[in-house]
Amino acid sequence: MMRLATLSDLDAIDAIYQEIHTGEEAGRTTIGWVRSIYPTRATAEAAIRAGDMFVLEAGGRIVAAARINQEQVPEYANCPWAADAPPEQVMVLHTLVVAPAESGKGYGSRFVACYEDYARAHGCPYLRMDTNERNRTARALYAKLGYTEPGIVDCAFNGIPGVRLVCLEKTLTD
Question: Selecting from 1.20.1300.10, 3.40.630.30, 3.40.50.970, 3.30.360.10, what CATH number does the domain 2-171 have?
Answer without folding.
Answer: 3.40.630.30
